[in-house]
Amino acid sequence: MTTSRLITDSSEWTFSILERYNEVIGQIAANEFKLDTYPNQIEIITAEQMMDAYSSVGMPLGYKHWSYGKQFVLTEKNYRRGQMGLAYEIVINADPCIAYLMEENTAMMQALVIAHAAYGHNSFFKGNYLFRTWTSADAIIDYLLFARNYVAECEEHYGEENVELFLDSCHALMNYGVDRYKHPAPLSLGEEKQRQQEREAYLQLQLNDLWRTVPARPSERVLSEARFPTEPQENLLYFIEKNAPLLEPWQREIVRIVRKIGQYFYPQRQTQVMNEGWATFFHYTLLNALYDQGYVNDGFMIEFLQSHTSVIQQLPFDHPYYSGINPYALGFAMMSDIKRICQQPTAEDRYWFPDMAGQDWLRVLDFAMRNFKDESFIAQYLSPKVMRDFKLFAVLDDETQDELEVTAIHDEAGYRRLRLALSDQYNLGSREPNIQVWNVAHRKDRSLTLRHTPYNRRPLHDNFQEVLRHLHQLWGFAVRLETVDEYGKVELVGECPQTRER
Amino acid sequence: MATLIDRRLDGKNKSAVNRQRFIRRFKSQIKKAVTEAMNGRSITDIDNGEKINIPARDLSEPVFGHGAGGRRETIHPGNKDFIKGDRMARPQGGSGGGTGKGQASNSGEGEDDFVFELSREEFLELFFEDLELPNLVRTQLAKVAEFKSVRAGFSSVGNPSNLDVVRSMRGALARRIAMAAPYSRRLHEAEAELQQVLAATPVDEPRAQALVEEIEHLRARVRAVPFIDTFDLRYVNRTKQPQPSTQAVMFCIMDVSGSMDRARKDLAKRFFTLLYLFLKRNYQKIEVVFIRHHTVAKEVDEQEFFYSRETGGTVVSSALTLMADIAAARYPLSVWNIYAAQASDGDNWHHDSPACKDILLKHIMPFVRYFSYIEITPDRHQSLWEAYEEVREVHPNFAMQQIDGAADIYPVFRELFKRRVS
């Protein structure tokens, strides 16, 4: 009876087999695990096409730029030498969700990729709050197409070189072209009116004529010269797009394009562990369900587990190939752990996660997927068991100390500190320097002043001077960078163009 | 719900443009690397791609990032025997001790060279970029005397020998149908009506009579449409296209007398190879004529040219005479660009050198685009060099150089073929 359900026992795939896999996996994902996904568009491509997709950061179409060529050259080299297997999947956050399958893969691998990308990543893109807030999946392909055509048109009008150099400058600031907080939607007329009335009523309540007798102190206002922008701005590219005095309209549009694309990738940078963990957890879960229901045989599972195990391998810190924590491993472990806590809670789990223990694991996991990013996900869900399994320890490197110090290990005393430190490691604010637009001397030399507020006294990387040069290109007038240290002391660290007297 | 799309047939070189842009962008660095690579490798395998090293810092894309320093607490997996409060020395550099900066670097921090492979085409393109064949200028192409007659559609005028019968007859047929059309239609109608009239009883005699007359009249009109008209005639049209001569012949002349040893022949070979490659890039078709000589000259194939062993005295003029003869017999100037490269160790029978000069001046230099001579000797020049120096003074397209080692070839090559300001 079970043999009748078996999809194939061959390792070669055909289109009908893929369709069957996709159908079955889709059914299980939707019915048993309640995964909510965009419709899928699964594309079979060759290794060369995969390299192309790779070097354009996975975008199906991008404008032309040398940096993608550089990426391509690198990828090609590594692939040719066999130093690197190509990723067996690329998935694009779009509606419909596009997943690439490489033709070289075996039938098992294709099923794995379908489960991983077309249902795992896909449901994450659709559900996670960051993606919901910052990306519009249904419009991205059209926007990329627009961007490519627009850039090509500019190249035609203004010369390839000009456009390319300008793009260089924009790319340098791409990470500083994102909005981190949603601006409130403009108020409607009705709301505006209502607020005004509330305000009036409130003022009426507070009215006390005595206050009018208090003498005003006008001098203070005059002394502090009005700054522009009135509040520091963290979205540098947006600020440039709107305020740079000398940009041509096409240049503003290009700034906008780079900014939009940066914004599109912003959620991905913050949900690496979660996204990969979620997808890995679900390819594991889905394929096991396939096996339990007799759609695949033992051979398939052995091959699958072999591949799965190498994906979630975490090398120890003293291994020669160690390169940090593997997001697949950590994400998968945490997702699996949430399921375990729900199903078989220990006393420790009940103490640490009283809300989760014994609950419906699907609901808990779904909630976690929807409402967190790496930083908060780890802070919320990293359990002592996972820390013990990974044998995590924290090392403090403080330049004021001569030696490194182990500040916490996976024991009772260290769990909270470990968790906090690991969460901080995924905090974009700690990974990227905090640099904001501070002031424009719009009545003087129109220079632009940025302020860097160091995080934990970490200095800027040496190449900031280069970035300033790019910023200068965009702004058109002098650009300065200041650092505000922990005592509030402001120091000029760089400027472009350099002036003599400093 | 899901769509499966087979994209394998779509183009695969989507990134080719970006790759080209990358190469163009870093042309100066890549060219430097190419030059360095040339110095290091034998010219016989020039026809390959090349691995290029560029310092990574030259092509990093700067972004704001954190540098080393400050306070950071990093988490690592795989603890074995550490406990809280353990202290250890800060590891120097990225020794992989796991205690340094474990965070994935967010900028191109590594100082490793950026290594990648140039294809053969790209390599040669860069290698040849600022070399250009002397006197090979576009004006030459503009005033070429060669024309080729090519088909260019049909015309309504022309001479009888170019008449295209099929075309003309087709046009005539169409015209006949068109011109006869109104009469034929009425003719058919009249015939049909006549049939009816004749079939009916009683026969309407006057009507039938009228129809018969009309039919005859119409038939006459149809017959009057001419079978063929001058209007129908179509001639094959031919235009003359200027035909730039895109073929070159290259004469390789080498001294194989006893004094040319293996190493010298090798040097000569590299020189010829380089010239050959260079011509290959500029001409669609190249023929190579190998002439070797000791006391007598002989045209040989490439294998024999480089590898057969022969000894004897040296009479250079024999080779030059042979070359002039071959050029005159087989390579008319209107079709061929003639180049010559001669390699020798400078030895020549003393009394032969003036003769060489004469042959060159009279029979060779007026016809060749370029004549290059390399003398492979560390020694002092002999009579041949002096004779050739006189030729050089008269002809700017004569070049001579002295080399004495493999390392000298490339610079010599550049010297010989460096871009001339016209």
From TrEMBL, chain A:
Pfam families given in the database record: SpoVR, SpoVR_C
- This protein's gene is called ycgB
Which ranges form a coiled coil?
none
Where in this chain does the record put each SpoVR protein-like N-terminal domain? 12-430
State the name under which the record lists this protein.
SpoVR family protein
Taxonomic lineage of the native organism = Bacteria, Pseudomonadati, Pseudomonadota, Gammaproteobacteria, Candidatus Competibacteraceae
Q: Highest taxon of the source?
A: Bacteria
Q: Which NCBIfam families match?
A: PRK11767.1
Which source organism does the UniProt entry give?
Answer: Candidatus Competibacter denitrificans Run_A_D11
- Can you give the residue ranges of the SpoVR-like C-terminal domain? 433-486
Q: Which residues cross the membrane?
A: none
UniProtKB/TrEMBL annotation, chain B:
Member of which family? Belongs to the UPF0229 family.
Q: What is this protein called?
A: UPF0229 protein BN873_20009
Q: Where is this region: Disordered?
A: 60-110
Its taxonomic path starts at: Bacteria, Pseudomonadati, Pseudomonadota, Gammaproteobacteria, Candidatus Competibacteraceae
- State the InterPro entries in the record: UPF0229 (IPR006698)
Compositional bias per record (Basic and acidic residues), positions renumbered to this chain: 70-89
